[in-house]
């Protein structure tokens, strides 16, 4: 069974809560990419959807210092028909606030997702996309290059 690791540094290491809009979750994510103008009500609506309709697919964990979220990561589980019903997890939105980087917290998040995926959920493989700047970090976490990312975007 997956156990959330204890860390002497952070005040909490836990699943994302519905109230985390108020504790800087989106501010933490903004260290990774742009967020947009999201209200507390919109955040709660998305959270509720993920907890009800997406509860078997979405896993979000956060690290906090005091009452402020300083790190986060999301995993999306994909159950396949191919390869004898393999299960793959996509690691997304791994971020540590800029003032708390280089302290091992990103590694802690990745290790926690890996353990949750493989030990508790029976995931066969975890995959992620990252920038060239982050390849070294993910290699330290045990990931290796595999394939090429492609995408198409909806015109806005």
TrEMBL record:
Keywords: Acyltransferase, Transferase. It is an enzyme of class 2 (transferase). It catalyses: D-glucosamine 6-phosphate + acetyl-CoA = N-acetyl-D-glucosamine 6-phosphate + CoA + H(+). PROSITE patterns: GNAT (PS51186). Residues 11-156 form the N-acetyltransferase domain. GO terms for molecular function: glucosamine 6-phosphate N-acetyltransferase activity. SUPFAM superfamilies: Acyl-CoA N-acyltransferases (Nat). One of its GO terms (biological process) is UDP-N-acetylglucosamine biosynthetic process. Pathway: Nucleotide-sugar biosynthesis; UDP-N-acetyl-alpha-D-glucosamine biosynthesis; N-acetyl-alpha-D-glucosamine 1-phosphate from alpha-D-glucosamine 6-phosphate (route I): step 1/2. The keyword Transferase applies. The keyword DNA repair does not apply. Its EC number is 2.3.1.4. Belongs to the acetyltransferase family. GNA1 subfamily. PANTHER family: GLUCOSAMINE 6-PHOSPHATE N-ACETYLTRANSFERASE. This is Glucosamine 6-phosphate N-acetyltransferase. It comes from Aureobasidium pullulans (Black yeast).
């Amino acid at each position: 069974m997956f156990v959330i690791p204890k860390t002497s540094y952070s005040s909490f290491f836990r699943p994302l809560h519905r109230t985390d809009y108020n504790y800087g979750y989106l501010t933490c994510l903004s260290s990774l990419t742009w967020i947009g103008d999201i209200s507390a009500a919109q955040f709660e609506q998305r959270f509720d959807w993920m907890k009800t309709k997406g509860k078997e697919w979405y896993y979000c964990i956060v690290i906090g210092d005091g009452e402020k979220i300083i790190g986060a990561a999301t995993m999306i589980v994909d159950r396949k028909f191919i390869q004898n019903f393999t299960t793959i997890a996509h690691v997304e939105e791994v971020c540590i606030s800029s003032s708390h980087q280089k302290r091992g917290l990103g590694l802690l998040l990745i290790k926690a997702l890996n353990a949750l995926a493989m030990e508790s959920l029976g995931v066969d493989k975890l995959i992620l996309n990252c920038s060239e700047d982050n390849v070294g970090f993910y290699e330290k976490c045990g990931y290796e290059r595999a394939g090429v990312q492609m995408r198409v975007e909806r015109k806005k």
